[in-house]
Design brief:
The protein is of the alpha+beta class. The chain has 13 helices and 8 strands. α6 packs antiparallel against α7 and α9 runs parallel beside α11. The longest helix has 29 residues. The chain is globular and about 70 Å long.
């Protein structure tokens, strides 16, 4: 593995930083925290106008997927909300990998323009991380499919134009084999959305599907091949798509505040910040390894699990440390007088635990590592 970036990749990073300085303003960042919608249409459009989304799109970009990692690494560190565009690019990569020509022609260009978002409809209220046990049904009715059920944690569904919806199409085979993925327009009759607020201040959603009728052109991948289709998405989401550099933004905010208050003079504070910085470097190297595997033609499923567990749990530890060191000021929110690091310490402490859940919980990813890397049996 060679982690030294090419001159072209460094230029790509510089262009992203320029756009974030110009468009990713404090007002844009504050708006996402106030609304709970971590997406910036202004930033998406600016990145698209410079051709950066197309360059980073899995399977399409000329720098893919190293530039995919660079894009979300910079967005992660900047504090600009990127949940919307990250999932949209993930969906574009999946569509490019397994989608029909019609799906590719219809959806991918609108994503790369920065105008279209996609939500992920995997988890359900009664099954959580046991995605293979879902009960949302899709039943064939002549030339159509009829979908009924409910999904949980469908973030950005209230902003998205499309959803990747995992359904059960054959209840008589093993649970992993009877699943089918659909690519549905969010304005399809029968789809409804209810907001769900999280402790991390994000707005996610519960979505409901009541007699939703779609044609076979909405099937993404193969009928009863939905588990494989979702595996493509998860490989990129866990290892390359972002969420592994949140500790960088945290340590920057805390360091600046601690220096101004004199807290940085404390040896324990300097030691802990050094440990956080080391963990951030390790998370970056593990993420780059996953990106390198993807760049070499593989899918970093196992490596994605490794980086996902390490990076999110290191972030959670760092957030807890910073809140402890800040004392009562670390409990104050944005815009409250005296808040540590202008409220970011409190925000990161609430946000960090959530990151260990989405994209597959730490427990699910540890099982993946245990079975595929360490050779442990499934029954342990």
């Amino acid at each position: 593995m060679e982690f030294t970036l090419s001159e072209q990749a460094e230029q790509f990073r510089s262009e992203i930083k320029r756009i974030l300085r110009e468009v990713g303003t404090a007002e844009v960042i504050d708006r996402q925290h106030q609304t709970g919608t971590f997406n910036s249409l202004e930033v998406n459009r600016a990145l698209a106008a410079s051709g950066l989304l197309e360059r980073a799109c899995p399977g399409l970009g000329r720098g893919d997927p190293i530039e995919l990692w660079i894009l979300f690494n910079e967005l992660d560190k900047s504090g600009v909300g990127y949940d919307g565009i990250s999932v949209a690019l993930l969906a574009a990569g999946v569509i490019n990998h397994v989608g029909s020509d019609l799906q590719k022609q219809t959806v991918i260009p609108s994503i790369l323009s920065g105008e279209t978002l996609v939500s992920l409809g995997y988890s359900e209220p009664d099954h959580g991380s046991d995605v293979a046990s879902i009960t949302t049904r899709a039943v064939r009715d002549g030339d159509e499919w009829v979908i009924d059920g409910a999904k949980m944690w469908t973030s950005l569904a209230h902003e998205a134009q499309w959803i990747l919806l995992l359904t059960r199409t054959d209840p008589d085979v093993p649970k992993h084999k009877g699943l089918t993925m659909f690519l549905l327009p969010m304005d399809t009759p029968g789809i409804s959305i209810e907001p769900v607020r999280t402790m991390g201040s994000e707005r996610t959603n519960a979505t409901f599907y009541d007699n939703v009728r779609v044609g076979s052109e909405c099937v993404l991948g193969e009928v009863n091949g939905g588990w494989r289709t979702m595996g493509v998405a998860l490989a990129f989401e866990r290892g390359v798509m972002g969420g592994t550099a949140s500790g960088v933004s945290l340590v920057r905010h805390f360091h600046h505040w601690a220096r101004g208050t004199g807290l940085l003079d404390e040896p324990i504070v300097r030691e802990r910040l050094a440990r956080i910085a080391i963990d951030n470097v390790v998370a970056s190297l593990l993420t780059q390894k996953a990106a390198w595997i993807a760049a070499s033609g593989g899918l970093p499923g196992l490596e994605g699990s490794m980086v996902k567990v390490f990076a999110t749990e290191a972030y959670q530890k760092a957030a807890a440390w910073c809140q402890q060191m800040a004392g009562p000021a670390g409990l104050l929110h944005f815009h409250e007088p005296g808040a540590a690091a202008e409220g970011y310490v409190d925000y990161d402490a609430r946000h960090a635990p959530v990151t260990t859940i989405y994209g597959g919980t730490s427990e699910v990813n540890r099982n993946n590592i245990a079975e595929r890397h360490l050779g442990f049996p499934k029954a342990r």
